Amino acid sequence: MAFIIAAKALVRHKRFDDTDFAEYFLVGTLARFLASRGRHHRFEKQIDEERCGSRLECFRSLTAVTPIRHSSLTRVCRCRIIAPMGFIFAVFAAIIISLTTAGPAIDPDPYDEVKVYRTWRDNDARHLACCILGQSGDERGRTLAVFDSTAVGWRRLFLDSDRGFRPWALELAELDGDPLPEVVVGAHKSTRFDPVVRNRIFVYDLTAEGGLYAKWLGSKLGGTPSRFFVGPGPDGRDRLHCVEEGRPEITHRYRWHGFGFTWEAEVASEGTS
């Protein structure tokens, strides 16, 4: 049981999301194990021949020095062989299961629909796309991902785990003046300080490697947002504009202040008088 738990913990590493890497690890480990067993067998045979002349002489010499029963010696030998073989077998079985079993915790691509995406080009001419991925038929998404445009198509750089926060909107914004944009996400969940499941605003940093790092997971703004967008402010940094539930005629404008948002003003929503 301990071998199986250790093997499952190993194969849940994010590197095994890459099928090519998992197959490489599986074949390489198997080849290395077989080669090492062959060398170990030849070495043991050579020691037996040099010291004892035969396996019977070796057994007699061992029992003469340390009087133990044949059954005890057999159990010791079996443990030396079965223990490493059992661990290797558990690793192989766990990897094979991870390659053939579908599900959010194992399968790296359980999503069949891009709900929302926004693209951005950096100074190195990279073309990145931040996406909300989900399943067709669902009102909200399941997780966040970042893709990089290459000559052969889109290459995934980052895939967040399905943590149950049900993202429903996404915008790229320049909130703090650094070279990389922030990813503003609409989430639908409870928080530690607000147990009610409702719409919220989360902010992530987009890293130079194309990953996402949680920057602010706010419990609440002024009200519950029903939709939002970003727009430039007078200082060159973007502002967050939110329309709240129950008051569609009013848009609230917020400014980023380092950790969270500060309310600035409210204006009439577009299409209302």
Task: From the structure above, extract its key features.
about 270 residues, alpha+beta, 2 domains, 4-stranded antiparallel beta sheet, 4 helices, 12 strands
Description:
- This protein is of the alpha+beta class and 273 residues long.
- It folds into two domains: 2-100, no CATH class; 113-268, Glycosyl hydrolase domain, family 43 (Tachylectin-2, Chain A, 5 Propeller), CATH 2.115.10.20.
- Helix content is 31%, strand content 34%.
- The chain contains four helices and twelve strands, in the order ααααββββββββββββ.
- The strands form three sheets. The chain has a four-stranded antiparallel beta sheet, with no helix packed on it.
- Helix 1 (2-11) packs parallel to helix 4 (70-100) and helix 2 runs antiparallel to helix 4.
- The termini are far apart.
- The model is unreliable at 65-70, 72-77 and 98-108 (pLDDT under 50).
